[in-house]
């Protein structure tokens, strides 16, 4: 394995082109200089002056226009930084973007405060004269019971970078400070980093490489556990304080309020998966143990592929055909977006030091999506890319159809379009192969990637996070020891006696950025539940199902998650879709067992 490259040494053609946001840093800085007086003018003109609905509409319009000009500013800096957290210039730009955004939040906080205090008739008139702002006003009214005194709101807005502090500290520790050094296995020395561990080593087919990598990785993580726990505790305290100040009954209520979801949907997802999915996944773990001839199935063996030898290698260029074929069913407009993503360098494929781990898609309003991925040249990347292009396809549609206030759907729904594309990819690959080994590889990818990642990894995070918030609501402090214990309990409960939970597994909580994004982890399985039902409809019904789905994507944030799912023909107020999803995973594991018998027999 080669040493990780520096950002400056990677091949430019496989990096994203941020010049669609700003031609260069100079243009970025100029945009900031231009928006600053607009913000000042906005405050001077409208603060304390929203006397008529007409003026209110003008103010909302101006607010919207400033918001739109801040989008590329924040994204340019942020994307630059995520491709190399160690880039001091990017850090500087990110600081500038954060400052202007704080200035805007603080100078514009009067708008919400003043509108909320207006009589109902006033707001109704705003809505009827400017129907494009209907959801904006309804959103304000939804938050009215939790709104604080205008001066307090302004003070809180001024503190916003401090509130983002824990997440940025988390990233700095993780991506800049921790040095994993090297480890040895089979008499060879291997360099170790977050990227190499999560990208390759944790799923390495050689048991000694895999297990020694895990040992070295965990031992180094452990040295940082108190800093990480302290950082996380700050995040929790801030969420708890906000929740109390605004008058929510619990942190969980506060965080679900933003998602337009009630507690029953949240708890069902966690409870049912912990109890009903676990038996299927334990069977899958047993199958891994059997196929790899392991005498003991350990926690660090769970990410190994069922049949690494049957996983084809794939280049970036070749991935394009697979993606095109798999997503063709979504129609020409969708495919056009996919091909532009390749042609116009929307995607950052390279691997380099300091780059954010995992993959994500940012979809700045008014521009096109940008995707970050670290291409390992393994076939599994077509699933990752299909997933991220699912986010792109979602916001590409929603951003075109909706105004900036209405484009983003609830977090509960965000992972549905992405996981839907993973299902479409799997269906495509299965339809076009008769080779039992390849079929087994595809199904095991759906299990080990799509369902494992979304319903197990993130779900265990969610179950653990729920326990953490229970403690927070009980006003308990959180130490590294507590977090380790809670995480270990959840992992042990899920895997039972079928997997031995090695020391170090409890530190898994240190690896996930999602804890800094509210109740995000559970939404992966929620999205995948909708996607599983939807992809079955596409398989069975074809075009009418695709048409429904495109309507859902275009609806953006104008509907609640329950309404969006309903438009897709899925009723998530009942447990049926989740039960069907779990049954489907069970069938996939059955199929894996049969294919394995066939291959070995
Ligand atoms: Zn995603």
Automatic annotation (TrEMBL):
Keyword terms of this UniProt record: Hydrolase, Metal-binding, Metalloprotease, Protease, Zinc
Q: What class of enzyme is it?
A: hydrolase
Query: Which cofactors does this gene product need?
Result: Zn(2+)
EC number(s): the record gives: 3.4.24.-
Where in the numbering of this chain does the Oligopeptidase F N-terminal domain appear? 115-180
Q: Name one Pfam family in it.
A: Peptidase_M3
Peptidase M3A/M3B catalytic domain span: 205-581
Any binding details for the cofactor?
Answer: Binds 1 zinc ion.
Entries under InterPro entries matching the protein: M3B_PepF_4, OligopepF_N_dom, OligoPept_F_C, Pept_M3A_M3B, Pept_M3A_M3B_dom, Peptidase_M3B
This chain's function reads:
Has oligopeptidase activity and degrades a variety of small bioactive peptides.
Q: Which PANTHER family match?
A: PROTEASE M3 THIMET OLIGOPEPTIDASE-RELATED, SIMILAR TO OLIGOENDOPEPTIDASE
Record-stated family: Belongs to the peptidase M3B family.
Q: What is this protein called?
A: Oligopeptidase F
Phylogenetic lineage: Bacteria, Bacillati, Bacillota, Bacilli, Bacillales
């Amino acid at each position: 394995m080669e040493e990780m490259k520096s950002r400056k040494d990677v091949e430019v053609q496989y990096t994203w082109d941020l010049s669609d946001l700003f031609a260069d840093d100079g243009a970025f800085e100029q945009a900031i200089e231009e928006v600053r007086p607009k913000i000042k003018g906005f405050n001077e003109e409208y603060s304390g002056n929203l006397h008529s609905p007409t003026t209110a509409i003008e103010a909302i319009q101006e607010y919207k226009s400033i918001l739109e000009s801040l989008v590329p500013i924040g994204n340019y800096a942020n994307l630059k930084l995520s491709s190399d957290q160690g880039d001091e210039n990017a850090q500087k730009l990110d600081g500038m973007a954060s400052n202007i955004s704080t200035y805007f939040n603080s100078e514009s906080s009067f708008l919400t405060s003043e509108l909320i205090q207006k009589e109902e008739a006033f707001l109704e008139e705003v809505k009827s004269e400017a129907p494009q702002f209907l959801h904006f006003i309804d959103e304000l009214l939804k938050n009215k019971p939790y709104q604080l005194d205008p001066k307090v709101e302004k003070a809180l807005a001024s503190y916003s970078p401090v509130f983002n502090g824990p997440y940025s500290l988390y990233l700095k520790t993780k991506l800049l400070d921790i040095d994993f050094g090297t480890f040895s296995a089979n008499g060879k020395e291997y360099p170790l980093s977050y990227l190499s561990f999560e990208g390759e080593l944790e799923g390495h087919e050689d048991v000694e490489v895999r297990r020694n990598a895990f040992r070295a990785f965990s031992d180094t993580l452990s040295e940082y556990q108190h800093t990480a726990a302290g950082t996380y505790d700050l995040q929790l305290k801030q969420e708890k304080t906000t929740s109390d100040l605004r008058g929510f009954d619990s942190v969980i209520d506060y965080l679900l309020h933003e998602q337009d979801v009630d507690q029953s949907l949240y708890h069902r997802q966690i409870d049912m998966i912990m109890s009903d999915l676990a038996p299927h996944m334990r069977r899958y773990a047993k199958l891994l143990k059997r196929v790899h001839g392991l005498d003991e199935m350990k926690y660090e063996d769970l990410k190994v592929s069922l049949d690494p030898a049957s996983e084809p290698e794939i280049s970036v260029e070749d991935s394009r055909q697979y993606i095109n074929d798999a997503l063709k069913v979504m129609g020409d407009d969708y495919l056009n977006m996919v091909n532009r993503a390749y042609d116009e360098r929307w995607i950052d494929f390279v691997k380099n030091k300091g780059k954010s781990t995992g993959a994500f898609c940012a979809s700045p309003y008014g521009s096109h999506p940008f995707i970050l991925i670290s291409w390992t040249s393994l076939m599994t990347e077509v699933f990752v890319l299909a997933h991220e292009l699912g986010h792109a396809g979602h916001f590409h549609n929603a951003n075109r159809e909706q105004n900036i206030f209405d484009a983003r759907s609830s977090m509960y729904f965000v992972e549905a379009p992405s996981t839907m594309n993973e299902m479409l990819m799997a269906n495509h690959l299965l339809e076009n192969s008769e080779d039992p080994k390849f079929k087994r590889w595809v199904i095991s990818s759906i299990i080990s990637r799509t369902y494992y990642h979304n319903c197990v990894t993130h779900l265990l995070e969610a179950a653990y996070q729920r326990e953490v918030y229970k403690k927070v609501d009980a006003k308990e402090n959180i130490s590294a020891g507590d977090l380790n214990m809670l995480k270990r309990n959840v992992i042990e409960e899920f895997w039972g006696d079928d997997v031995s939970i090695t020391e170090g597994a409890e530190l898994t909580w240190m690896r996930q950025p999602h804890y800094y994004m509210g109740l995000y982890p559970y939404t992966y399985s929620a999205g995948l539940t909708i996607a599983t039902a939807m992809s079955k409809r596409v398989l069975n019904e074809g075009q009418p199902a695709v048409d429904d789905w495109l309507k859902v994507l275009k609806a953006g944030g104008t509907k609640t998650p329950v309404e969006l799912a309903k438009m897709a023909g899925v009723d998530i107020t009942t447990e049926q879709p989740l039960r069907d999803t779990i049954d489907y995973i069970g069938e996939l594991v059955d199929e894996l067992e049969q294919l394995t018998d066939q291959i070995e027999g």
